[in-house]
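Encode chain A's predicted structure.
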Amino acid sequence: LAYLLKERVAEGEELVRAIREVASGGSAVDPKIAAALSGRYAPEDEEREILDLMARGHGYVEMAERLETTQEDIDRRVTGLFERLARGDGTSTSRVVDELKRMHAAVVDRESSARTLRSFLPAGVADRIASGAPVQEEVEATILFSDIRGFSGLAESMSAWEVAEMVARHLSAMVEVVQAHGGAVEKFAGDAVMAVFGAIEAEPDHAGRAVRCAMAMQARQAELNRDGELQGVHALRLGIGVNTGVVIAGTVGGAARMEFTVLGDAVNVAQRLQSVAEPGEVLISAATVQCAEPSFRLEPRGAQQVKGRKGTVEVFRVLA
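Encoded structure for chain A:
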């Protein structure tokens, strides 16, 4: 007895082999049928690729581009795949197909929303919003503020386009450094950068990461200054402040505008430390020193009064 799938009749070699097998008294069983009968059916490579793309939340447009075909062809493949998956389930095939397609549409919608959010929010926050997880919580985190010293004077002597190019080059480099150290850029304020460590995902070494990031930001800007010197680009000097403490981290705003932020006294202290840092300096608080690994060379600056706060803050300058 030979089992032949009509889809494979066009495969001449398979047909000839089956006929010869039966003529000699044997049996040619199609491998797909044999696997299905034994309950071990595994999707072909094409079907596996379709399933993988669907699992990643890709829609028909993206799947068609990836597989270099049309959306209509993708719909045909997906429908055929779902029909095969639905067989053997005692439910109506059409009903199962509709349900599976509806599930896929929900995945695509959720992933699309998450991608949009990632354009405006840190990736970790966007993923939590999309999954329905809480987006406001009290956490211990380390906050970093950086600012270009003398920026107003520079801007006054440059055209608006020159200022925009200079700031864009600086901010782009700083974002790369922050992300490389496991932090998230919370916001830009003109030429200033606010970054957070340990607020989105728990990081035991968030304080150490922030301090290393601050030093790396200074080093990166020094590289930019050297590269720009030959092109006549103004050199920039940064003042950076870092502080550690308990904050409320989460999203604020509504449907029209939403952003991620961290709130609390720890944020204010970090900003104040940045405001008193000299060009090229990184100032950190005693709270950050206590949380960070003891591998940094520090210069004590003593207890300092910071603007807007009654108590003093023990301040240290990071040397290396």
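The first helix runs from residue 12 to 23.
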